[in-house]
């Protein structure tokens, strides 16, 4: 199972990890930076030119820490800080001080140079307004670097994407890869944000499900590994009668598609036996496409007794797809 959180939920888990569980924010930031660096090193040559574009929030602090770690590993790193340094968060100020103490310089504007890799750390998941002014220019310049061949990596979420709904807030960074922390955000998975995210990597930095005690995540999705416990146990000595009998009442004159799709879905989901009630004009195509299904096809109007017998036979009834709104559909629905 993979949890999908909103920005408010993620902020609550972050604060809980710091204040209640006791992991300092500086430790979380360092672990976040290390997680991103691990992904970058996997795919890039160590000698390439890197641009770090950082904002004044904690996302920018992550970006500065990433640049420091890359520079200490031998990358040719250029640091660029957007916004007013006096309005930076305390964690980002700490990262800037570390960088300056190590002898690295930080520029305030983007130069028209060539880079092999751009790390986007302008905005994190808290963006709630339309991007404009200098920040809009930064986003557009990052996308220009990408169009020239630079690989773009976003920290937590592509800058300009709303973390709650995937909306583009004026303009947004097109990332080749996004490394997010703890849990996936809705904006990573909902379009158009999904398109801007590129490959999504979810990294564990110490924010765990223990924090769900204060607030349950609002969404989740199942993954392939979950299927083994989601699907019911099937007896090895069972037969088609053991695994459920489904009656499908679907389709109408010249309307076979919905009936075929629905019947196929029922069989694929594991039903042992399927009986289909449909108009006789659908009989031939149903026999060709779903030969394992039983079929009662009516010509003028359905035989009410046969419909009732089918109801007594089955465990589950599925009805509606492609039935139309004519008198036959009305009469069948009345019997059902």
Walk me through what this model shows:
- The two termini are 37 Å apart.
- This protein is 38% helix and 19% strand.
- It has 2 domains: 2-226, Rossmann fold (3-Layer(aba) Sandwich); 245-335, Rossmann fold, CATH 3.40.50.
- The strands form 3 sheets. It has a 7-stranded parallel beta sheet, sandwiched between helices.
- The mean pLDDT is 95.
- With 336 residues, it is α/β, with parallel strands linked by helices.
- It has helices at 7-21, 25-43, 58-72, 90-101, 133-147, 186-189, 193-197, 227-230, 257-268, 283-289, 304-313, 327-335, and strands at 2-5, 49-54, 76-81, 106-107, 117-121, 151-155, 177-181, 184-185, 199-203, 219-221, 245-249, 273-279, 294-298, 316-319.
Label the CATH architecture of the largest domain: 3-Layer(aba) Sandwich
Q: Which homologous superfamily in CATH is the superfamily of the largest domain?
A: YjeF N-terminal domain
Q: Would you tell me the overall average pLDDT?
A: 95
What would you call the shape? elongated
Q: Class by helix and strand content?
A: alpha/beta
> Reading side by side through the largest sheet, how are the strands ordered?
4-3-2-5-6-7-9
Could you name the ranges where pLDDT drops below 50 across 5 or more consecutive residues? Answer: none
Query: What's the β-strand tally?
Result: 14
Radius of gyration: 28 Å
Highest-level CATH class of the largest domain: Alpha Beta
Largest sheet: 7 strands, parallel
Q: Report the CATH topology name of the largest domain.
A: Rossmann fold
Whole-number tally of structural domains: 2
Helix content: 25-40%
Give the percentage of residues in beta strands: 15-25%
| Distance linking N and C termini | 37 Å
Tally of contiguous helical segments: 12
Order of helices and strands: EHHEHEHEEHEEEHHEEHEHEHEHEH
């Amino acid at each position: 199972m993979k949890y999908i959180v909103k920005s408010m939920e993620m902020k609550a888990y972050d604060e809980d990890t710091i204040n209640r569980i006791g992991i300092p924010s500086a430790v979380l930031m360092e672990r976040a930076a290390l997680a991103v660096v691990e992904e970058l090193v996997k795919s890039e040559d160590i000698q390439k030119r890197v641009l770090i574009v950082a904002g004044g929030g904690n996302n920018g602090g992550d970006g500065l820490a990433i640049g420091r770690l890359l520079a200490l590993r031998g990358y040719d790193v250029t640091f660029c800080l957007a916004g007013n340094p006096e309005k930076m968060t305390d964690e980002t100020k700490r990262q800037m001080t570390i960088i300056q103490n190590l002898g690295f310089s930080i520029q305030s504007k983007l130069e028209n140079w060539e880079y092999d890799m751009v790390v986007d750390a302008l905005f994190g998941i808290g963006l709630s307004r339309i991007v404009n002014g200098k920040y809009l220019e930064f986003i557009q310049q990052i996308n220009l670097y990408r169009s020239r061949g630079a690989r773009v990596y976003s920290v937590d979420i592509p800058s300009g994407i709303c973390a709650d709904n995937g909306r583009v807030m004026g303009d947004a960074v097109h990332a080749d890869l996004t490394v997010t922390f703890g849990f996936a955000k809705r904006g990573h998975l909902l379009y158009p944000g999904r398109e801007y995210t590129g490959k999504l990597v979810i990294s564990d930095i110490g924010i765990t499900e223990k924090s769900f005690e204060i607030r349950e995540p609002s969404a989740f999705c199942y993954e392939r590994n979950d299927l083994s416990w989601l699907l019911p146990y099937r007896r090895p000595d069972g037969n088609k009668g053991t695994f459920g009998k489904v009656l499908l009442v679907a389709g109408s004159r010249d309307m076979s598609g919905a009936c075929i799709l629905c019947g196929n879905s029922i069989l694929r989901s594991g039903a042992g036996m399927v009986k289909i009630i449909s108009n006789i004009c659908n009989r031939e195509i149903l026999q060709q496409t779903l030969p394992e299904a039983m079929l009662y096809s009516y010509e003028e109007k359905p035989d009410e007794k046969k419909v009732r017998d089918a109801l007594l036979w089955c465990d589950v009834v599925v009805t509606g797809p492609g039935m139309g709104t004519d008198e036959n559909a009305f009469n069948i629905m009345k019997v059902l």
